[in-house]
Amino acid sequence: MRFIRRGGTSVVGLAAWIAGVGGVAIIAATAFDPPPLPLQTTRVDFFSGGTAAGSLNVSMASPASCALCHSPTNAPSNLWPATMMAQASRDPIFWAAFSIAQQDAEYIGDFCLRCHAPAPWADGYVAEPYPTDGSAIFNTELNGVSCIVCHRMVDPDYTPGVDPPSDAGILAGIAGSGHNWPHNANMVLDPDDVRRGPLNLNAGWAGGWPGFHFFAQSPFHSDSRMCATCHDVSTPTYTLDVATGAYVPNALNAPPPVNKYHQFPEQRTFSEWTVSLFAAGGVNLGGRFGGARGPVVSSCQDCHMPGRAGTRNCSNSGAPLRTVPAHEFNGSNSWVLRAVNGLIPQVHTALTQNSVNASVSRNAQLMRDASDMELSIVEDDLNVRIINFSGHKLPTGYTEGRRMWINVRYFAANGSLLAERGAYNAATAEFHGDDTKVYEAVHGLDATAAALTGEPEGHAFRLALVNTILKDNRIPPMGFNNAMAEAVQAGSVPPGLYADGQYWDDTRYEIPIGAARATVTVYHQTTTKEYIEFLRDQDQRMFPIDPQTQERIFPDLLLDGIPAQFDSPRADTFGQLAYNLWNFYGKSAPVLMDTGTIIVGCRTDWNADGVSDVSDIFAFLVSWFAGQGDFDQSGTTNVSDIFLFLSAWFAGCD
Q1: By the 8 A CB rule, do 351 and 340 touch?
Q2: Residue 610: how many CB atoms within 10 A of its CB?
Q3: Residue 68: exposed, middle, or buried by beta-carbon count in 10 A (0-12, 13-18, 19+)?
Q4: CA distance from start to end of the chain
Q5: How far is CA 97 from CA 164, 341, 461, in A?
Q6: d(Cα 137, Cα 113) in Å, to the nearest integer?
Q7: 629 vs 436, which has greater pLDDT?
Q8: 568-595 average pLDDT score
Q9: Alpha-carbon gap, residue 570 to 568, rounded angstroms
Q10: % of residues, the chain, pLDDT over 70
C-alpha cells in the first residue's frame, strides 16, 4: 500500500538539484523560484555501507521464535518487549516524522527503516522491487530492533584472535568501507544465522551446551561501538565543506561520504561518549548505574543493560545461573511506550500494562540518576548547578522536540508563590522558557538549503532537510575536551560554552524581594507541543480511502484499526494520530530529574515586603488563626508554630 498526498505534488528534476550544488554562491545571492519538494534523491544517496538488503543466506528469525526458549518468564524476553528498541517500528512519533520525511525526499524510507525496522530491511522488504515507505512489511515483522538484529551483528573492525574467525570472510564479502564508520544502521550481519553474544554458552552447562543454534562468542557485543550503529546518525545527503564548516548538498544519485564526520550530524550519542572519561577506561559512580556489573561503568551497555545476578537466560532447566546484561534499554522516552500499548493489541507488541509500568519506572529512575543538582547563594543570586553523570551529553539523542530545563519557584515565608521561572502548564503543555535555561539542540536550514528546498531559512523540524546547528548547549560528559568534541561533531554551539573538563553547568537567578525559599526542579520532556503540532499540521500523506466502503485503508502497522479514543479528531494521517495519542497520554508530561529547596530570604518576612518587622507578627497571626501558619512545615498548624515564629523574629534575619 502506498500513501497519497493532498492535492498531489510536483517534483524537482535532477539537473536543478545538481546545478544548485555547483552554484551555491549564485543561488544564495539571486532571487529564484525554488523547486517543489520532494527532492529527487535515490536509494544510492542514503546507503552508508554494510550488509546489502536482501543479501542474507538465511532470513532473520522473529522474536517469537527466540521466545520459544528464552520464554517470557526468563531474561531477556521478559524485559525486551517493554523497550523503545522493541517498539521502534511501532512508534507513532516515528511514523509521523517518517511520513513528513518522505514528503521532503524520495526514497528516504530506505534510510529510516534500516534503523527502525532493520530485520525486514535486511530481508529485502524495502529494497527493489518494493517501495521504501514500508508498505511491503507485514505487521508480524514490525518488531523494532529485535533479538536477531543485534545477535547476528559482526564487528566491522576485525581483530584476529579476538573476533570469531569467520568474521574475516564475512567482512571481505562486504563492498566498500562504510561499515568501518558505524552509524546510520550500516551494520554487518552474519549471512548464515550464527548468533553472537558476549558470553561463552558452553560454560556452566553440565556436559556442554546442547547446541540449540549456531553461536559464536563476540566481544563486540560488550563494546559501545556496537551501539554506534544506530546511535550515531548522519544526514548523508550533505557533505562538510571543511573550508567553511558548512554542510553542502551532494550531487544526486551519488554515494555519500564514507567518513561519517563529513556528513551532517543528526545525532551523536556514541561520539559524545568517545570523548568522555567513560570511554577512557571507566568511572566509579558508586553503583549509580551498572547493577551487578559493579560500581565502575564504561560502556553504553554498562548503564543501559545493567547486570542482573542469578539469571537463567534459557527456559531449559540445565541452563546455568549467571550475571547477565539485562535487556532493559532504559532511556528518556516513556509516554510513547504507553501509546504503543494503547494503540496496538498485545498480540502484536507482547506488551502488558505491568511490563510498561515497570519500564516507565526504570526510565524515570535512570533520568534521576543521570544528573545531580546543587543549589547555593552566590552574590545575592540563586545559583543552580546541574552535574552530568551520564556518559554523553545531557540530554542526548534525537533532537527534534526534546528539551531539558530548570524550573524555579520562589515562595514567600507565608507559603504563597511569588514568582516562577521556566513555568510549564500541564493542562495546555504551554512552556515559558524565556526566563530560564533550556538545554537542547536546535537544527535548521542555512541559506543554501533554504534556497534549494523552498523552505524558510532558520529553525525547522524538517529532519530530511536541515543542515545547520543553530544551538547546542547540552551539558557535556566527564572528560569533555573542546578540541576532541569538535573533531567528532559533538561540540557546543556556539563553540566554547563549556571549558575543558567541565561536565556541569551553572545558572544564576535574581531573587525577588520577599522570597524566603526557592524550590528548583530540573525537567526533561520527550515531545514538545511545538513539535507535535508540527507533525500534526505538516503530514499531508493521507491514509487511502476504499472506493467501495469509503473507509480508510490502514497500513499493516494499524491492522486492527484506530481505537475510538485515539480517533478524535479523525486521524487521516500519522501526524494527526500521533497528536491524538500525545494528547490522550498526558501531552508528554515532563519527567522530573532533580528537585530541591533552598532558603533564599528571611523566613519571618511573612507579608513579603522585603523587611521583617512588627507588621509580620500581625500577618503571621492572621494566617495562624486561619489555619495557615505552619511555620515549621510539620504539616499541622498549632501553638508551637507561634513560639517558633516569634523566636525566629526576635533573632532577626541576616
Answers
A1: yes
A2: 12
A3: exposed
A4: 73
A5: 39, 20, 9
A6: 10
A7: 436
A8: 98
A9: 5
A10: 94
> By the 8 A CB rule, do 383 and 377 touch?
yes
Q: What dihedral do alpha carbons 466, 469, 471, 474 form, nearest 10°?
A: 100
Phi and psi angles of residue 278, each rounded to the nearest 5 degrees, phi first:
-65, -40
**Highest mean pLDDT: which range of 9-18, 186-195, 601-610:** 186-195
Q: How far apart are CA 351 and CA 360, in angstroms?
A: 12
Rounded Cα gap, residues 236 and 258, in angstroms: 9
Contact indicator for 37, 454 with CB cutoff of 8 Å: yes
Cβ neighbours of 180 (radius 10 Å) = 17
For the residues of 289-306, what is the DSSP string, one character each?
A: S-BTT-SEE-SHHHHHS-
User: In the predicted model, is pLDDT for residue 302 greater than 80?
Assistant: yes
CB 530 within 8 A of CB 311: no
What does the pLDDT read at residue 187? 97
Who's near 17: CB < 8 A, 6+ residues apart?
Answer: 35, 39, 40, 249, 251, 252, 452
Average pLDDT of the chain, as a whole number = 91
Q: Which three cell numbers stand for residue 167?
A: 568474521
Higher confidence at residue 212 or residue 102?
102
Q: Is the bond leading into 547 cis (omega within 30 degrees of zero)?
A: no
Are 526 and 332 contacting, i.e. CB atoms less than 8 angstroms apart?
A: yes
CA–CA separation, 186 and 51 (whole Å) = 7
53: Cα separation from own chain's centroid: 26
Q: Is the per-residue pLDDT at 16 higher than 50? A: no
The distance from CA 623 to its chain's CA centroid, rounded to whole angstroms, is 47
Grid cell digits, residue 568: 478524535
Which three cell numbers mark 114?
Answer: 534500516
* Number of CB atoms found within 10 A of residue 526's CB: 24
Q: How confident is the model at residue 236, as a pLDDT?
A: 98
Enumerate residues 6+ apart whose C-beta is below 8 A from 142. 89, 90, 117, 120, 348, 556, 557
Assess whether pLDDT exceeds 50 at residue 5. no
Mapped onto helix, strand or coil, the DSSP state of residue 267 is strand
| Cβ contacts of 343 within 8 Å, gap of 6 or more | 90, 92, 558, 562, 563, 566, 577, 581
pLDDT at 13 over 60: no
pLDDT tens track for 445-503: 999 999 999 999 999 999 999 999 999 999 999 999 999 999 999 999 999 999 999 99
